[in-house]
Specification:
The structure is a single chain. The protein has 11 helices and 9 strands. The chain is an alpha/beta fold. The chain has a single domain, classed as TIM Barrel, CATH 3.20.20. Strands 1, 2, 3, 7, 8 and 9 form a 6-stranded parallel beta sheet that branches. It has a 3-stranded parallel beta sheet with strand order 4-5-6. α9 links the parallel β7 and β8. α2 packs parallel to α10. The radius of gyration is 19 Å and the shape is globular.
Length: about 325
């Protein structure tokens, strides 16, 4: 079995950061996603990269009224009120994409949909945080049903999910199975990356993750697929592509070396390497962030030629795995 590169992107705009950041302090990065997405699509199309775009359901809507119309009747009762986006629909969100490019993204979704090889997946309807205090499985299921409904109106049948903030538990996977999702992006199988609510991500955890970005602080990132008993296929994450750090350029250089070394291991061993990031991570210093990505994609092309390394989306890989499992039964 040849090695495979999976790329997934958490496509959120302000919905993914609104409880932590504001338009005044981070809006430039979010607004620049409108440059980032076409740049990424051009590169992916040119190199035959099949990426998965996990998209917040709100972004499918063309108007604020449509966002409200699709909103589920059962909603999370988060202890942290800032986590719920629904009050913001009345006070912070404009009427449409022309008026509010920070909260609407239908034109970008259409570009992704029209680019060959791109999978549009779900990042839930409302950027649902599945482990935060006040959530419930009933609200999560209602949220996913809303996400599926709004995507289907755009002609998109959702097959994969990326959980916001990588928060999930077995009961959430069972909900996904019931709603006919077939794959999810699981977390790396080690202590540093286990699913946690925000309050549990301590300075020690952050420090370990930062160190692991450049040093082998945790076990190797690529993996050979083995069934783990999850209700849907676990396309486990390997590495978060960190944005270029202007004030710590040597760190960014070491980070890039680590990613490319891990990709070479995956290609030689016939394993899966799953790289992910948010488009808004590239919204500042776009030129250098794209240069980082170009270096990664150049490595992919070399491994494609030398080892048959292939680019697949999350749903592509899930289909291949399920087919292999069926042949073994």
């Amino acid at each position: 079995m040849s090695g495979k590169l999976v790329i997934s992107l958490d496509f959120e705009l302000m919905w993914g950061v609104r409880d932590k950041r504001t338009i005044s302090d981070y809006g430039d990065a979010v607004l620049n996603v409108r440059q980032v997405v076409p740049e990424l699509l051009d590169r992916f199309a040119g190199l035959g990269i099949r990426a998965t775009w996990a998209t917040v359901g709100f972004l499918f809507c063309k108007s604020r009224d449509e966002m409200i119309d699709h909103a589920p009747s059962i909603r999370p009762a988060y202890t942290n009120l800032r986590l719920s986006p629904y009050a913001a629909l009345e006070s912070e969100v404009g009427r449409n994409e022309d008026e509010d490019p920070y909260h609407f993204g239908r034109s970008l979704i259409d570009r992704i949909k029209d680019t060959e090889g791109q999978e549009i997946a779900t990042h839930t309807y409302s950027h649902f945080c599945s482990l935060e205090d006040g959530h419930s499985c009933e609200a999560f299921e209602a949220d996913l049903e809303a996400a599926k409904s709004v995507a289907l109106e755009s002609g998109i049948s959702l097959k994969s999910i990326v959980f916001p903030r990588n928060q999930y538990a077995p009961e959430h996977l069972e909900v996904c199975r019931r709603l006919d999702l077939s794959a999810f992006r699981g977390n790396p199988d080690n202590f540093a990356y286990k699913p946690r609510k925000d309050a549990e991500i301590t300075l020690a955890v952050r420090g370990l993750r930062l160190a692991d970005a450049v040093l082998p602080a945790t076990p190797r990132a690529s993996f050979e697929f083995h069934p783990d008993g999850a209700p849907i296929t676990n396309i486990r994450a390997s590495r978060f592509l960190r944005p270029f750090m202007t004030r710590a350029q040597s760190f960014s250089e070491m980070h890039l070396v680590r990613i490319k070394r891990e990709m070479r291991v995956a290609a030689r061993r016939g394993e899966v390497y799953h790289l992910w990031w948010h488009p808004h991570n590239m919204g500042r210093d776009l030129r250098r962030n794209l240069a980082q990505l170009d270096s990664v994609l150049h490595e992919f092309r070399e491994l494609q030629d030398s080892h048959g390394f292939r680019s697949v989306s999350m749903s592509d890989l899930s289909f291949e795995i399920l087919k292999i499992q069926g042949q073994r039964v």
